[in-house]
Amino acid sequence: MGNALLSIQIIPKTKDGEDVILYVDKAIAIIEQSGVKYQVNPLETTMEGDLTELFSIVEKMNEAMIENGSRNVISQIKVLYQPDGASMDALTKKYRS
């Protein structure tokens, strides 16, 4: 368990209006390669870990969008920082059967 949860919706601006799904797939692959715990949801992906590491992953995601041809990127981010520990499971366990 880390000290933060970070949810991100990444919105790349493509060169010629291409579908952004391939870009989003690349962004999620960066999260997966990082090794942090994460959950993909319909409108955003939530990561669990150390706040510094999570922001580093966001930086890599944004850089990858540009490297893959996006003109710019909007990243909508929500952060829960809790120094004594934060986990997705703890916040959602009462909703799981």
Topology overview:
Blueprint: E1 2-13, H1 21-34, E2 37-40, E3 45-49, H2 51-67, E4 72-86, H3 88-92
Antiparallel strand pairs: 1-3, 1-4, 2-3
Helix pairs in contact: 1-2
Short overview:
37% of the residues lie in helices and 37% in strands.
Please, could you describe this protein's structure?
The chain is α+β, with helices and mostly antiparallel strands and 97 residues long. It has one domain: Alpha-Beta Plaits. Helices cover 37% and strands 37% of the residues. The protein has three helices and four strands, in the order βαββαβα. It has a four-stranded antiparallel β-sheet with strand order 2-3-1-4. Helix 1 (21-34) runs antiparallel to helix 2. The longest helix has 17 residues, at 51-67. It is elongated, with a radius of gyration of 14 Å. The mean pLDDT is 94.
Overall residue-averaged pLDDT value? 94
Helix content: 25-40%
The rounded distance between the terminal residues' Cα atoms is: 22 Å
> From the alpha-carbon coordinates, what is the Rg to the nearest angstrom?
14 Å
CATH class: Alpha Beta
Order of helices and strands: EHEEHEH
Number of beta strands:
4
Oligomer designation = single chain
Number of helices: 3
Tell me what the CATH architecture is.
2-Layer Sandwich
Question: What percent of residues are in strands?
Answer: 35-45%
Classify the secondary structure makeup into a structural class: alpha+beta
Which stretches of 5+ consecutive residues score pLDDT under 50? none
The rough form would be described as elongated
- What profile does the largest beta sheet have? 4 strands, antiparallel
Domain Thiamine-binding protein: 7-95
Family: Belongs to the UPF0045 family.
Protein name: Thiamine-binding protein domain-containing protein
InterPro entries: MTH1187/YkoF-like (IPR029756), Thiamine_BP (IPR002767), UPF0045_domain (IPR051614)
